[in-house]
Amino acid sequence: MKKLRRYIEIYSNVTDELLVRIEVKIDKNQIKKYITCDLDDPDVLGVYSLNNKELECFGIINCDNGSISFFITSEE
User: Fold this and answer.
1) What is the pTM of this model?
2) Are 70 and 9 in contact, with CB atoms under 8 Å apart?
3) Second label for 40, Cα 20 to 30 Å away, from 2, 27, 34, 50?
4) Residues with Cβ within 8 Å of residue 33, at least 6 apart in sequence
């Protein structure tokens, strides 16, 4: 069985162009621990968000002082 890889994908709000795709080593059971979910079921791929405090845990400084919305995708 192949290992499932998960990615954070951030798209431009203006052009819908993929700006960045980052592989994350978060197990499906840990998603809610590290990332604020907009959905009740973290197995459903959808829109998630990180606020400034959560971004700082990943070493990211958000100059807009707002949350960043993104998708979590997965592939084998």
Assistant:
1) 0.50
2) yes
3) 2
4) none
